[in-house]
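To start, one record:
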Amino acid sequence: MENTPGSIIKHLRLQKNISQEELAEGIIDRAHLAHIENGRWGLSQETLDALVRRLGYATCDFPNLVLTYVEQKILTMREKLGDCLGIHDYEAATSLISEMETIPEFRDGLHKQFLLKSKAALCLGTEGNISLTRTYLNEAARTISPDFKERSIPGYFLTGEDVEVITMMAELYSLEDLLDKAVALLDMLLQSLDKSAMDAYLKAQCIIIILLNKALYLERQKKYRKALDTCNIAISASQTNRIYGYIPQLMVSKACCLCVINKSNEEEAKYLFRQAYYTKLAFGLNVQADKLKEDILSEYKIDFIV
C-alpha cells in the first residue's frame, strides 16, 4: 500500500467496511473523497483530521497523515481558489493566483496544471480572451503529454484534472461557434474514459459533466433529438450513481429539446421545468430559479409554475 494520505484513508475505510458516502457525509462530498483516495486531489489538515476521526483513529497514529505546513497551505489555497472561481469572485481569485505563482511547488507537476487551468478560467471569466485562455490550457495539457495532441486523446490515460482541462478546451470551441469541434473533442474524451482506471464514482461524475456539455452543444446546433438522447443517458447515469447536482440543468436541456421537437411534448416539458425550478429552490439557489422561470417564459411562452 502506498503511504499517501489518500491511500491510507482508502485502506482504513475498506478495513472498517465503510462506504465512501458514509465516510464523507457532513465533511466533504463523495466525489471529493474519491479524488482524494485516488491521489487526484489533496485535502486540508482539518478535512484529514475529520475523516480519520470518523474512521476511529487520530492523525498522530499515522505519521504520513500529518501534512507539513507547506502541504497544508498549498491544499488550502487550492480549495479556496476553486471556491472563488465557482462563485465568480475574480478579485479574490486573482490575489490567490498571484500568491501561488511565488510558491515553488506550483512551478511544475500537477500543482502547476491546476494553476494553469485556474488562470484559464480567470482569463475567460474576466477578459473573455479566448486566445490567451487557450494558451494556458495548452500548457496545462502538456502535463498529460509533452507533445499533447487533441487527436490522441482517446489513447491517453487521464486524471480528473485532465478531463477538466480538455472540457474547457471544448468550451472554447463552442464560444467560437465551432460546435462540431467541441462535440468531437468531448466524444474523444468519452472514449478515453471507457478504458480509464479512474475510480468508478469519479469516472461517472466526469462522464455526466461531459454529456451535459455535449447536450448543450448539440442543442445549439439544432440537433435536438441527439441532444435529447444525450440528456437521457446523462440523467440515467446521474440517478444510477446518485450524483444529483447536475440533474436540474439536464432536465432544463431535455425540456427545451422536447418543446422544439413537438408541441405535444409541452406538458412533459412543463413537468421537467418545474422539477428543475423547485430543485434549485431546495438548494437555496433562488436567483437561478427565478432566472430559469423568466427565461422559459420569454423563450417558450411557458408558465410552468402551478
